[in-house]
């Protein structure tokens, strides 16, 4: 099984829409559910840098994005 598909399956079993992981100076936000994919499509730039199956986000932008996710009723595993 592909590692990313396995990862998404494990996170999905925990009922999270997104996963966020810290990689030092950037964070990676990974959409897990279809609702999360739609949210990311609607709210993140089309040219946002992709990394490890998610979107690379500078630390200074992360909080605003997480607040938007929460305001729309989605959940994040960190």
Query: What oligomeric state do these chains adopt?
Result: single chain
- Rg calculated over all Cα atoms: 12 Å
Instruction: Give the proportion of residues in helices.
Output: 40-55%
Number of strands: 5
Descriptive overview:
The two termini are 23 Å apart. The chain is α+β, with helices and mostly antiparallel strands and 78 residues long. Strands 3-4-2-1-5 form a five-stranded mixed sheet. β3 and β4 form a beta hairpin. The radius of gyration is 12 Å and the shape is globular.
Can you describe this structure in just a few lines?
With 78 residues, the chain is of the alpha+beta class. 44% of the residues lie in helices and 26% in strands. Strands 3-4-2-1-5 form a five-stranded mixed β-sheet.
Layout: helices, strands, pairs:
Elements: H1 3-13, E1 18-22, E2 26-31, H2 34-43, E3 50-51, E4 54-58, H3 59-71, E5 76-77
Parallel strand pairs: 1-5
Antiparallel strand pairs: 1-2, 2-4, 3-4
Task: Supply the key terms.
78 residues, alpha+beta, 5-stranded mixed β-sheet, 5 strands, 44% helix
């Amino acid at each position: 099984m592909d590692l990313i598909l396995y990862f998404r399956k494990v996170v999905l079993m925990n009922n999270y829409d997104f996963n966020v992981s810290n990689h030092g100076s950037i964070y990676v936000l990974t959409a897990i559910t279809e609702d999360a994919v739609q949210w990311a499509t609607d709210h993140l730039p089309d040219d946002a840098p992709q990394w490890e199956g998610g979107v690379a986000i500078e630390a200074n932008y992360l909080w605003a994005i997480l607040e938007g996710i929460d305001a729309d009723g989605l959940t994040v595993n960190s």
